[in-house]
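Example 298.
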Amino acid sequence: MNISIIGVPMDLGQTRRGVDMGPSAIRYAGIVERLENLNHDIEDLGDIQIGRAERVQDVMNPKLRNLKAVAEANEKLAVTVDEVVTRGRFPLVLGGDHSIAIGTLAGVAKHYKNLGVIWYDAHGDLNTEETSPSGNIHGMSLAASLGLGHPALTMIGGYSPKVKPENIVIIGARALDEGEKQLIKAKGIKIYTMHEIDRLGMTKVMEETIAYLKERTDGVHLSLDLDGLDPHDAPGVGTPVIGGLTYRESHLAMEMLAEAQIITSAEFVEVNPILDERNKTAATAVALMGSLFGEKLV
Ligand SMILES: NC(=[NH2+])NCCC[C@H](N)C(=O)O
Ligand SMILES: [Mn+2]
Ligand SMILES: [Mn+2]
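Predicted structure in complex with arginine:
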């Protein structure tokens, strides 16, 4: 595979400092070497430049914090991702907070008629400025990609929506806000909460997910928020939620995706080295990327 790595040191989609160092931490944990050892062609495009949150009216808008700076960075990311896909390469985006999914999807989705999305996350990120309890845009990125919310977010890349509700599968959810629950029901979004994962087991969940996406999509983006994992395995995240997916379940999920060969773009987000324990979360991210890109135990 020809893989292009894009770092997005974004921390303006939420309020805890440090997640902007995520891309460095993941590189330090050895992502390039890990993927090169699997005989992939790796190109590291460096980091997207993130503006400063200096526009007073943005910062002060408690319903959409740092809207302008988040939107600008996502416009840049969309252009870079679009170019990577146009060159026939696989975009691998390293975050940064989850607001960057808006830009990644804007760059990817125009290349597919029916892009599928796997949202591996403790959260739904399906809030809009109306339903968000925090005003943090990292909790709005999936909604924005569905065309819901502020036009500065939904119109990144100049078009909307990026993804259809029936092409989304959420895996690992255990912290959903009221408005998000309503939206999931109203739009019929497929979701495996921790309840279904406990009941069915990860093998069945991934078999069903893969079969579901295979029959209706022509490409699949994996958006993996490290807080989908249990804080025991991924302590370095800004919004940890207990009772999450284990390291083992997550490896199995990545291995099954690798085997199914359905993933056409991916991002790993919310790694926050300041909150981490000896770069454990970045190391977990790198290990999961190893499995996603074909690493086998024997
Ligand atoms: N990408 C994330 N970690 N999102 C967390 C979102 C938390 C909460 N639902 C909110 O809207 O603020
Ligand atoms: Mn999350
Ligand atoms: Mn998220």
